[in-house]
Amino acid sequence: MAADHRHANWPEWRSDAHVTKLGAIEPDARFRWKIRGASIKATFAVIAPERELAWTGVAMGWIKAIDRFRLAPTGDGRTTVTMEETMSGLLLTLFYNDGKLRKGHQDMLRMLKTAAEGPAPTPRS
User: Residue 80: pLDDT band by 50, 70, 90 thresholds?
Assistant: First the structure.
């Protein structure tokens, strides 16, 4: 679910983000998405199905970010999701700080957990 860009399915579980343009899903392939109204131009860096997904992105032309999701089975049928993000940009800390970033990550992980533990999604046609 977190790493499933094949169907751009974020809207099924993540209310604050959606993919707007998606082609190939492979390293160096570009895609676009929006989060809370901000448009992001991104490039896949790592695609390892069921293990890792990472990309780099640019928002507003000057905010740069690197996002990484790692998935690890726990042995009891569960999966641990580790999320990492770095952001940089001139004056970024004036309006976006660690607290906001952490809250966004907690919200996203809560949405993912709710969807993963809920009923199976309806198959797409």
Answer: very high
